[in-house]
Design a protein that fits this description.
By secondary structure, the protein is α+β, with helices and mostly antiparallel strands. It is built from 13 helices and 15 strands. Helix 1 runs antiparallel to helix 10, helix 5 crosses helix 12 and helix 7 crosses helix 13. The longest helix has 16 residues.
Length: 416
């Protein structure tokens, strides 16, 4: 994979409020600039993983450069080998000043390279629990929010009545009697089991501590009330809904958009899949009510991090960019309208959110969320869990409790 370097052109139009300084930035002979605040700003290099925003991000950094006089170099990636390339660059001290990671396993692995950004002016206005804290440092500023749960057709499912596992079980049976697929899943690992299994973990009093006890063998899932309810729920899905082993993600979304399925267990990323169908019904996103849960599973798919090994001037430029992006009107417009992100900072709004993303934004603003505990699960565990669930759906002799015990054994094995 080759990196393509895109440099924001300063030409001869440095901002009049900036004074050229004789200091060179790391990785080249570029001169630093000194701002009105007396701070020295070095060249800013950015490397990030979301390929879908590369074009508007290039325009964004040009606007930032014109506004501040700071030179910005954007490294382009295909996305496939991003994390590997980033680790190589950082380990050889040729890394970018500002980069992205997935909070959780990735950011924990790269903890030694992460600068504390708690001095950003808007840090305390970021949605509760969404700043990535690593080794006691406030290190990651969220790009956007993603959430999942029950994507529902308002005309086919009264989600206000779905406040318990028993209510879900009764609904799925009644939907089947009415000739409707009450709830759709699909065959891909994350959509088949990872997302739905997140809920019984996330509703624990201390999800991370509970996970550790499961991995160590100290706790068995089936002894926990939430997992007993999960077992009952999964049996109801098998008995009353279309077998997800036979359904692709595209088909699952299509069946929902055309009214064949009342709800799908999905997230706000799926809304774009409905465009070709032009659905004429109201839709939204509701919680999966295991153990009476009434919160959406919301988290941060990617966050910005500042390279702690960069020079002080370079780190100042990275923080200046983040300040501009999240507090300046032009920067916010790029976040909300050009990148299509869900607001993550208090007071930030978007008039262009789809109805599912609006539910995610509202839940985050209200603090009405549960975590993505699955981000803490052993790497690659999805490939172990999916075959177990596929077998459950195709063999009615396997009980829900059997399923939970088999999943538990897979966790223990993966945790060794």
């Amino acid at each position: 994979m080759k990196k393509k370097i895109i440099t924001s052109l300063l030409a001869m139009t440095m901002a009049s409020t900036m004074i050229l300084s004789g200091c060179g930035a790391k990785g080249g002979d570029t001169e630093a600039v000194t701002g009105e605040d007396g701070e020295e700003y070095g060249k800013l290099t950015i490397f990030q993983s979301k390929t879908e925003i590369m074009d508007p991000l290039n325009s964004c950094i040009e606007a930032f450069s014109e506004d501040t006089g700071i030179e910005v170099e954007l490294w382009e990636t295909s996305g496939d080998n991003y994390f590997t390339d980033l680790k190589t660059d950082l380990s050889t001290e040729a890394g970018p000043t500002l980069f992205s990671l997935a909070p959780g396993a990735e950011s924990e692995e790269m903890a030694d390279y992460l600068e504390d950004v708690s001095d950003l002016s808007f840090i305390d206005k970021v949605s509760a629990g969404m700043v990535d804290e690593v080794d006691g440092k406030k290190a990651g500023i969220p790009y956007t929010l993603e959430g999942f749960g029950l994507v529902y057709n308002e005309s086919l499912a009264d989600v206000k009545s779905l406040t318990s596992t028993d209510a879900m079980v009764d609904y799925l049976a009644s939907a089947k009697a009415d000739g409707i697929n009450g709830l759709g899943f699909s065959q891909e690992d994350y959509f088949l089991i990872m997302h739905v299994l997140n809920t019984p973990f996330a509703v624990q009093a201390d999800p991370d501590a509970y996970l550790e006890k499961v991995l160590s063998g100290e706790e068995r899932m089936i002894d926990n009330d939430s997992f007993k309810e999960f077992a009952k729920f999964m049996e109801a899905v098998r008995d009353n809904c279309t077998n997800p082993v036979d359904v692709t993600y595209d088909n699952n979304c299509g069946d929902f958009a055309t009214g064949k399925t009342a709800m799908i267990h999905q997230g706000n990323w799926c809304f774009s899949m409905f465009a070709d169908y032009n659905p004429d019904f109201k839709m939204g996103l509701a919680p999966l009510p295991i153990s009476g849960n009434q919160k959406l599973a919301v988290s941060v798919p990617a966050a910005w991090y500042v390279n702690t090994d960069a020079t002080d001037a370079e780190k100042a430029s990275a923080k200046k960019f983040l300040e501009w992006l999240y507090t300046d009107q032009v920067g916010q417009d790029y976040l909300m309208n050009q990148f299509g992100f869900v607001p993550v900072v208090e007071g930030m709004t978007s008039a262009s959110l789809d109805p599912i993303s609006q539910c995610v934004a509202d839940a985050a603003a209200d603090g009405n969320t549960i975590p993505w505990n699955m981000a803490k699960w052993p790497a690659g565990i999805s490939s172990s869990l999916a075959p177990i669930v596929s077998a459950f759906y195709t063999d009615s002799s396997v009980s829900g409790e059997d399923l939970v015990n088999q999943l538990n054994d897979a966790f223990v094995e993966a945790g060794k």
